[in-house]
Write a structure and sequence with these properties.
Strand content: 35-45%
Helix content: 10-25%
Order of helices and strands: EEEEHHEE
Number of domains: 1
Largest sheet: 3 strands, antiparallel
Structural class: alpha+beta
Oligomer: single chain
Number of helices: 2
């Protein structure tokens, strides 16, 4: 039997809301890296993971990535996804 499609929503500490879907992928967590560049610009990298362990693993290589790319500072954030059967209401 096919898995049903669902919508996954992540609400970040700063209020940013990311919706993924419709999907039947087994994602459980959303992660985001906000990197401050020397020029005053900001780069954002994000993704979703199938477990807390997988999402946490993204942080392991972060110090090396920051050094290689010359980031002045960076923030790693991770939240658990919430599931719903219906698409979110437009803002």
């Amino acid at each position: 039997m096919a898995r049903r499609k669902r919508y996954l929503t992540a609400v970040m500490p700063d209020g940013y809301v990311k919706t993924i879907g419709p999907t039947n992928a087994p994602f459980t967590h959303y992660w985001r890296i906000v990197a401050e560049l020397g020029s005053g610009r900001t780069e954002v990298f994000w993704g979703h993971a199938k477990s807390l362990k997988e999402a946490s693993g993204k942080k392991a290589a972060l110090a090396e990535a920051a050094r290689q790319r010359g980031w002045q500072s960076h923030r790693f954030e991770m939240v658990e996804l919430t599931e719903s059967a219906d698409p979110p209401e437009p803002a």
